[in-house]
Design goal:
Layout lengths: L6 E3 L6 E4 L10 E4 L2 H9 L6 H16 L7 H16 L7 H15 L4 H31 L5 E6 L16 H8 L3 E7 L6 H12 L3 E5 L4 H6 L5 E4 L3 E3 L4 E4 L2 H10 L4 E4 L5 E2 L16 H4 E2 L2 E2 L12 E4 L6 E4 L2 E3 L17
Parallel strand pairs: 4-5, 4-7, 5-6, 7-10, 8-11, 10-15
Antiparallel strand pairs: 1-2, 2-3, 8-9, 9-14, 12-13, 15-16
């Protein structure tokens, strides 16, 4: 079974290497990010995407950008690190993993003594640690999620919460990968995910690379598929989880949750603990990114709607906690009532 790597160090370690996801599934192109402009552009344009993956790319990108400042004074080096962390961390506002990773890197820069070269070495280790931790977290999510899958499972998913969105097996797709690894029969239904088709372009691509059966459907077909009895469970990822269990994920997730509830189908969210934002009380407090209207107006440069028509293009929606059967984290399966608190507290995962 082949699992792709979305983000990693370049061979020489002087760049962040990503799969340019804008070009999939037609071309598999690996791109090297060597400047902070490269990193910010890659995150903004969805060349690298998925909450965990952009956190990893941001952390690694900071190291690459700071490598040009090792002759600075310690004070100037740390100030530059803080400025770059702020810049990278603000590129996409909804996914919590990006500012989480940048705050972790910034804290490391501030608290590490010594010359900038020594600080940079520690920062490189920290960024690599974030990558390796994410790989381990994905597998743990997969192991917990696997317990929720029947021996023969038909799973509906939305957008891409697989290897392309993380440093490892993915979040929503991790249980599916482990089921296939164990020889179970598993079939995935992937919503195409308008307007950028992350489901049909990315999820279907990576699953076919791994030899896992996948069927693509238009977003509006999911409820009908559920009514026909073809879906055993729904598993989606998350970009931010509020303290009360409300979940921000790719636009269209809320509609899936409503349909799943009506048809009495379990609706699961899979995400690492770092995606939980205990400082955000509820989904009402989550900032929703709105993207360029041309993402909907055009396809491959061709206008597909009247030019004077207005466009509504939020990247995410919020699914209320009461529609979520359980949240699968790397620390266990969390069930309602949800009450997340700050990381580091013994009551991290409650409910």
């Amino acid at each position: 079974m082949t699992v792709v790597e979305a983000v990693r160090w370049s061979v020489g370690g002087d760049a962040v290497e990503i799969i340019d996801q804008r070009l999939l599934p037609n071309e598999l192109v690996r791109r090297e990010l060597r400047t902070v402009d490269d990193v910010c552009d890659a995150i903004l344009t969805l060349s690298v995407r998925g909450a965990p993956a952009i956190g990893i790319a941001g952390a690694m990108g900071l190291v690459v950008a700071l490598s040009r400042h090792t002759d600075d004074t310690r004070e100037h080096f740390v100030a530059t690190a803080e400025s770059l962390c702020d810049r990278i961390g603000s590129v996409r506002p909804t996914a919590v993993n990006l500012p989480w990773a940048m705050e972790r890197m910034c804290r490391t820069a501030r608290t590490t003594p010594g010359h900038p070269r020594e600080i940079l070495s520690v920062l490189r280790a920290e960024a690599t640690g974030i990558l390796y931790e994410d790989r381990a977290m994905c597998r743990r999510i997969g192991e917990y999620g696997l317990t929720l899958l029947p021996e023969t499972a038909s799973v509906l998913t939305h957008c891409n919460a697989g290897a392309l969105a993380t440093g490892g097996l993915g979040t929503a797709l991790a249980p599916i990968y482990l089921a296939a690894e164990a020889g179970r029969r598993v079939h995935v239904f992937a919503n195409e995910t308008r307007p950028l088709l992350q489901g049909s372009r990315l999820t279907a691509w990576e699953l076919t690379q791994a030899g896992i059966d996948v069927t693509v459907l238009a977003d509006g077909m999911a409820a009908s598929l559920m009514k026909g009895g073809a879906v055993d469970l729904v598993i989606v990822g998350a970009d931010r989880i509020a303290a009360n269990g409300d979940v921000a994920n790719k636009i269209g997730t809320y509609a899936l949750a409503l349909a799943a509830r009506y048809h009495d189908i379990p609706f699961y969210v899979a995400a690492p603990r770092s995606t939980v934002d205990p400082a955000t009380a509820s989904g009402c407090d989550i900032a929703i990114e709105h993207r360029d209207s041309d993402e909907m107006r055009e396809w491959n440069g061709t206008l597909i709607m009247p030019p004077k028509a207005s466009v509504y293009n939020p990247a995410f929606d919020v699914t209320p906690a009461e529609l979520i059967t359980a949240i699968i984290t790397d620390e266990g399966i969390v069930r309602p009532p949800y009450a997340f608190v700050a990381i580091g507290n013994p009551a991290d995962v409650a409910g």
